[in-house]
Fold:
Amino acid sequence: MLEIKDKQFYMDGKPFTIYSGAIHYFRTFPEYWEDRLLKLKKAGFNTVETYVCWNLHEPKPTEFDFSGILDIERFVETAQKIGLYCIVRPGPYICAEWDFGGFPAWLLQDKNMQIRCMYPDYIACVDRFYKELLSRLVPHLQSNGGNIIAMQIENEYGSYGNDKEYLRHIESLMRECGVDCLLFTSDGNWKNMLSGGSLPDIFKVLNFGSKAKTAFGCMKDFENDGPNMCGEFWCGWFDAWRGIHHTRNHEEIVKEVKDFLDIGASFNFYMFHGGTNFGFTAGANHNPGKAYEPDVTSYDYCALLNEWGDYTPAYHAVRKLLCEKQGIDTGELPPSPRLQSIGKVELTQSASLFENIDNIGEKHRAPVPEGMEYFGQNFGMIYYETVLEGKYDIARLTFKDVHDYGHVYIDGELKKIIDRTIYTKPQKHILPSILGKHDGEDDGVSVLMPPINGKKKIGVLVDTFGRVNYGEKIIDRKGISDIFIGDQRQMGYDVWTLPLDNLDRLEYAELSGLKHKNCPVFLKGTFAADSKADCFIHLDGFTKGYVFVNGFNLGRYWSVGPQKSLYLPGVLLKDENEIVILETEKYSKPCVEITDKHELG
Structure:
């Protein structure tokens, strides 16, 4: 059993240091878990750490899913079979560059929802989920013959709040559910964060990416009977659309690890293997004074294993260091993942989104626009349509809280694209004119409407990015909140929810003629694969959208970069395969290429 004595970890009565690496089971297919965990073990690590994603485990209230890629018990058991201990961080908030920080979107149906505090309805949902989750994890605790040696209370709570009653509730809930292993809190290495996020009698770990020899200095003013431990050593960083691909020199990483070893500190590499934000799961940041920044599909993170599980120079350098420190024979490594090139794939059929909106969407009537969460939708797109009727002078149509990427149509004609990554950029103050803006000025969220006498149909198709996963703007409902004609609020809407999880209902036609290039459009093709080796889909000439292979949503693509191709795990492949691309903007030719090369950055 893991225990703390004399400011040191002991395992079964012997001094012990935790060398842990983070692998999120929900970002890697189960068929690859053993490979990734074995590579962790072979690099000299003795523990694997994972978050738990509440939003996927409970997609609807009281409906739980622990199957397939969500089978956390299988993941923990696989780690034990390989000889690894396990640290579980069950949240309920996880951050993790994951949509809404791991919270289920249906929490936002309550317009008064308050998270990460003692708000009664929130606490009731947390209690229900924890009881379901922990009933599955308690049998895998070390005290019950399993390999789970520690669990976290909340996550970096001092970066958000300071409700100690809430932290105590999470602690008590875990104990009541039978969790008898070491509990800990984690926060950044700053007194303010530790003050808000820690509990006096609970073991504390720090999260940081450099300067281990001095980072623990902030702990001297806090009670902590345990050894120094970095709960997240950030060996890399995540990428956002319109940004750069983050990398870190492996020599710099080795230097930091040497510092940990020199001071005898335990650590958890975040990430050892990042994996992929499949589907709509990638999160976003929207920090004060900065623009909204959604994360890309890849969660490469400059981790020791790359997105598809192959070795990096940092892996070999850290492995050498850890194995030498522990006197471990390095031995032979598992093989690198197999890759394949399939070549060009023609997309021969098309289906207009608007012509199929009643096939794949659910229609609702609402007096004012509501976010998708109001209608019980977690992910995807949403379309609003309203009719403006009367005699109006020239006016400005303003679209409020477009989250996140809106196509504005007037009488079926595309008039504007509203991009949250653009309109939230800090703007210089400009004095308003009689129309609310200077003539011809584009404020990013409005269009100038000419005089009308009769009716105008206004439509807004909203494509979503990730919900904010960190900070004060984490309550991030998707869709729009209002349309104004000058100062007048537009009323009466038809709303179609489009979760994009039922594409088998699309009605396709053969792709020919320019009319089929009208976007948004679904394009479909087929291709053969003679192996289940991994590969990458390149989308040259496409602009923005999603890729589905054999019904599985691989994630978002966007030509703004830095990510230029999508990872296609070989386990999804069959002899004959179907690929569907939803292109929302424009494309130059109906063809993609599938190769063994990844473009990131």
